[in-house]
Amino acid sequence: MSKLFLRSLYLMLLTLCLPSMASAETVAKIGDTPYATLAEAVSAAQAGETVEITVAGEYTVPGISKNITIKGGVDGVVFNHTTAGNIASIPNGATFENVTFNFGNENYHGFQHAGTINMEGCKLNGKFFSYGNMNFTNCQFKHSGDYHMWVYGPGTVTYTNCTFTNNGKFLHLYNESAQDVTVNVTGCTFVNTGNANKAAINVKATCPEKGNILKYSVNVENSTAEGAFPAASSSDALVVLNPLVQVDKRPANPTTTEQISITAENNKVKNGTEEVAIENVAYEEGAVVTAAGVAKIGSTEYETLEAAFAAATDGATITLLADCAGNGIKVPQGKYTTGLTVDFGGFTYTVDGETVGSTGTETNGFQLLKGNNITFKNGTITSTKAKILVQNYSNLTLEGMTLTLNNPNYASAYTCPTTTATL
Q1: pLDDT tens across 26-84, in order?
Q2: Which residues make beta-bridge pairs with 258?
Q3: Pairing of strands 245-248, 238-242
Q4: Can you tell me whether residue 38 is helix, strand or coil?
Q5: What is residue 76's three-state secondary structure?
Q6: Are 353 and 388 in contact (CB under 8 A)?
Q7: Checking DSSP bridges between strand 149-152 and strand 171-174, what pairing results, if any?
Q8: For residue 130, what are the CA distances in angstroms to 16, 107, 117?
Q9: 127 CB-near residues (< 8 Å, 6+ apart)
Q10: Phi, psi of 243 (to 5 degrees)
């Protein structure tokens, strides 16, 4: 067989194969149907369907007329939108999953006049603006120096189990209308890599250009401020409720009326490996509302006994102010070498929440680890939930205390290797 014949046969077979090879070069699919471009897939998708991007690379968000899901079927699907203005027309909303957005640092840059935008498991780099309802779940926000996001105008924006990493600024709430802005933050972590600058969420309470009624509803719960953040403070210009949220009244505008409601509950700060609970706080109509305290250290009241323990320093005295109930309390090793006194003041503390203890055996009402000098006096500790009411490894003194375990399945109210007791 001649070389010329073999070469001719090869070229003929190659020609026959080319159409099928070209059809295999797809970047997206709906179910099992492939598409050569993302725009073609989005155009073909019906409401409720998922367009899965199957090839990593850089893309542009096309106009989306129906409420669909765009999912990164592989890692490395990136949307680059770094210039100011509208990113894409999405009038009926959409969901994005497992994709990365690079936004740059331009102002007034976002999904304008859009339906509800959902982002799940996405990475968002740079700064952008919300113009309506948005929901973020398990997302990672990264930026440097400027805000991650302006919640700009009316709508509801929800962040659930998200992480924000920046060096000083995070979320900025700015409303120029008289319509409601609602922001819900649950289970999120704000990591400041720089010096203390602003609280994680800045609520702008004045609008110098317009004399509107500014309406905000902000709820922050089970979230963490990690790194350097400002402490609580108050002035005519700025109210820092806690490291997670502040109300900014600069510049003053006498024609602007606040209708602001903020609640911050069950949050904490973290520095290194140490985590400290943040006192619950609320802000209504321009004033900080402090919940009635159940315990105090000096003149500072705390909404829970657990929060008072978290705030107490070596040598402090915690005084109970009322009968109360809450979680179990664990004292770390060597925290109170000088001593901690808890004066129950004739009141009762009931352990009815989460119990504490070593990993895998969190069944105690109190766990007091070694290297501490602790005094409990003048009150009652009780529980129907704990298996051991007080597990003690510290130097513990009990004066005028009643310990009652009302759990029918367990009889051990107290373990005390090193205790001076006057019950």
Answers
A1: 999 999 999 999 999 999 999 999 999 999 999 999 999 999 999 999 999 999 998 88
A2: 214
A3: antiparallel
A4: helix
A5: coil
A6: no
A7: parallel
A8: 51, 11, 9
A9: 103, 104, 105, 106, 107, 109, 143, 146, 147, 148, 149, 150
A10: -60, -15
